[in-house]
Amino acid sequence: xxxxxxxxxxxxxxxxxxxxxxxxxxxxxxxxxxxxxxxxxxxxxxxxxxxxxxxxxxxxxxxxxxxxxxxxxxxxxxxxxxxxxxxxxxxxxxxxxxxxxxxxxxxxxxxxxxxxxxxxxxxxxxxxxxxxxxxxxxxxxxxxxxxxxxxxxxxxxxxxxxxxxxxxxxxxxxxxxxxxxxxxxxxxxxxxxxxxxxxxxxxxxxxxxxxxxxxxxxxxxxxxxxxxxxxxxxxxxxxxxxxxxxxxxxxxxxxxxxxxxxxxxxxxxxxxxxxxxxxxxxxxxxxxxxxxxxxxxxxxxxxxxxxxxxxxxxxxxxxxxxxxxxxxxxxxxxxxxxxxxxxxxxxxxxxxxxxxxxxxxxxxxxxxxxxxxxxxxxxxxxx
Length: 383
Hints:
Elements: H1 4-12, H2 16-20, E1 23-29, E2 37-39, E3 42-43, E4 51-53, H3 56-60, E5 66-68, E6 74-77, E7 90-92, E8 94-101, E9 105-113, E10 120-127, E11 135-140, E12 149-153, E13 169-170, E14 185-188, H4 196-201, E15 205-212, E16 215-222, E17 249-252, H5 258-261, E18 265-273, H6 275-278, H7 281-288, H8 299-305, E19 316-326, E20 333-335, H9 365-382
Parallel strand pairs: 4-7
Antiparallel strand pairs: 1-19, 2-8, 3-4, 5-6, 6-19, 8-18, 8-20, 9-15, 9-19, 10-11, 10-18, 11-12, 12-14, 13-14, 15-16, 16-17
Helix pairs in contact: 1-9
GO molecular function, one term: hydrolase activity, hydrolyzing O-glycosyl compounds
Protein name: Glycoside hydrolase family 16 protein
Keywords: Hydrolase, Membrane, Signal, Transmembrane, Transmembrane helix
């Protein structure tokens, strides 16, 4: 009979995904999609958007801003039916998960349409209860941008090495949020189907984020390349990120320890208008210009937000599901109210290069240790 020590050594060589696996914590899908979310219920006082994030009661009344369509998918959209007069703001939606999720959590969104258009600023992201104790922008961009931009926002001290292995392009390596810096450490997705009209034309796709001891990993899969373990029809599958290939964005813990810079994360899905990112004249001009030489600072607002709303016919999420898994034995979740401070606040970065590094295992040390101790304990009982 093999000794406990030798069996433990064998167990330690088993891939961590097999030892720990992922357990489903939350499945927002179909008729249950709008359960366990908090609607913000206030004007956008987070990113200076020209938008009102309505309550659930308003969102479900006519014109509906949140509902399940005939295909069984969730719609979250900007009001495109109402006429807005100066100086009022336009109604839209900000959803935040009731529970938050800690290290070892994996959250995934499968969507067939993302909001886009001049002045439109959508995001699928997460943040801690207090900002900037960790924010992860899985999906975000503005106006008529062609690809997704990922980012982290943290307290000062978190950076990204140029050698980090990812398919995206690192455009800013400093994740800190001091008074002179707001864009975070940004990565531009190389996939032209990752955002905007091209995303919808390709049948949509899947975004996945893993918050692990070894770093933050973000993947995008266009519809034709969605892994089978992220199937719409099989929420009880145990995803295996080891089989997903190189991530679109990777932020290693070697230069940004997740246990130091990231508190438990609330998941957020929202659409604001103009604001600090989409409404900045230099950003707006990149895809919605040219703007007049003497354009006022509120040009984005006066050109788009006021009026009959037809500008926002494409400003909606159509989501098949959002799911959260954990690969720790006991789910690390907490319940709270809307996060305070901050918001999804990236701005376009410049420069930077994509880089490579050796692969790093992506599953938590705590999960591996728990599995190993469990095997050792079982063998000891049988001895």
